[in-house]
Amino acid sequence: MQLLPLLTPAHALFLDFDGTLTEMAPRPEAVRIASGLVPTLHALHHHLDGALAIVTGRREMDIDTFLAPLRLPLASEHGAQYRLGEGPARPAIQPPDLAPVLHAAQALAAQHPGLVVEPKRASVALHYRLAPHLEELCHDALLYVIQGLEGVELLRGKCVFEIKPRGIHKGQAIIDFMTQPPFAGRMPVFVGDDVTDEAGFAAVQSLGGWGIKVGEGPTAAQHRCMTPAALRGWLSSARTQWERSA
C-alpha cells in the first residue's frame, strides 16, 4: 500500500466509486465489490459519526444496490442529486430535457456494437470502453446534438462522455455537504481517480483538507494512491486502528 496521510475520526470523508473504491469494469453494471468493502465503509461511517459520503457520477439506485445494505450520504450524478440522511435523494437542480441527447446516443450505440448508453435522471453517459477507436465519433456526435440545448455541457471521463447540467460538479457537492452536520467543522478528504474528480480535489483543498488521486495522470490532489486495492487497504487500516483504540 502506498504511504498516505493518517485518516482520523476528525475528518469528513468523501469517496468516489468507480476506479476508486472499485476497479473499473467494461460495462457499468459489471463492477464487482471487493470482499470486506461494505463492512469497512459501515465501520468508518460509524467512527466518523456519519461524516462519510459517496460522491459519484453514478445514479443513487446503482450505489445503493452495489453497497447494500448500506445507505450512505450520497451526492450522485456528479452532484445533481443529494442525500444526507436516510430518505431519498433530492435534486440539487431541475434536470434539463435531455431527450435529444438520449435519442442521439442510442442511435449511435445501435450502429456501433460496444457503445453503452447509460441514462440517468439528470444526465446521459455514453461509454466507449469496449470500442476505444470510436472516441472521436462519440465526442463529435454528442457535441453536435447539444449545440441547440441550453444549460448543459459535455464532460469527458475515462472512456465515457457525459452530457450533464452546466455548473454541476463534485466540488460544489462537497462544499454544500460541508455546510451541513455531521460534515460541518471537520477537515474534508476526497478520494477520486478521474478528471471528473479534479473539482472535488480543489474543493477540499480550498477548505483546508486534502485530496487523494487513485492511479496515474496529472492531478491537483496532494496525495496519490496507485490502485483501488491499495485505497481499500488504507481504509481498512484506519478502521482497524480506530477499533483497537476504542
Protein described:
Helix content is 31%, strand content 21%. The protein has 246 residues and is of the alpha/beta class. An 8-stranded mixed β-sheet has the order 5-4-3-2-1-10-11-12, with helices on both faces. A 4-stranded antiparallel β-sheet has the order 6-7-9-8, covered by helices on one side. Strand 3 and strand 4 form a beta hairpin. The longest helix has 18 residues. The radius of gyration is 18 Å and the shape is globular. The relative contact order is 0.18. The mean pLDDT is 92.
Helix-strand blueprint:
Elements: E1 11-15, H1 37-47, E2 52-55, H2 60-66, E3 74-76, E4 81-83, E5 90-91, H3 99-111, E6 116-119, E7 124-127, H4 135-145, E8 152-157, E9 160-165, H5 170-177, E10 187-192, H6 198-206, E11 210-214, E12 223-225, H7 228-245
The SSE order reads EHEHEEEHEEHEEHEHEEH
* Biggest β-sheet: strands ordered side by side in the sheet: 5-4-3-2-1-10-11-12
Shape: globular
Give the integer mean of the pLDDT values: 92
Report the radius of gyration as a whole number of Å: 18 Å
Q: Assign a percent range to the helix content.
A: 25-40%
Poorly predicted segments: none
Short characterization:
This protein is of the alpha/beta class and 246 residues long. It has helices spanning 37-47, 60-66, 99-111, 135-145, 170-177, 198-206, 228-245, and strands spanning 11-15, 52-55, 74-76, 81-83, 90-91, 116-119, 124-127, 152-157, 160-165, 187-192, 210-214, 223-225.
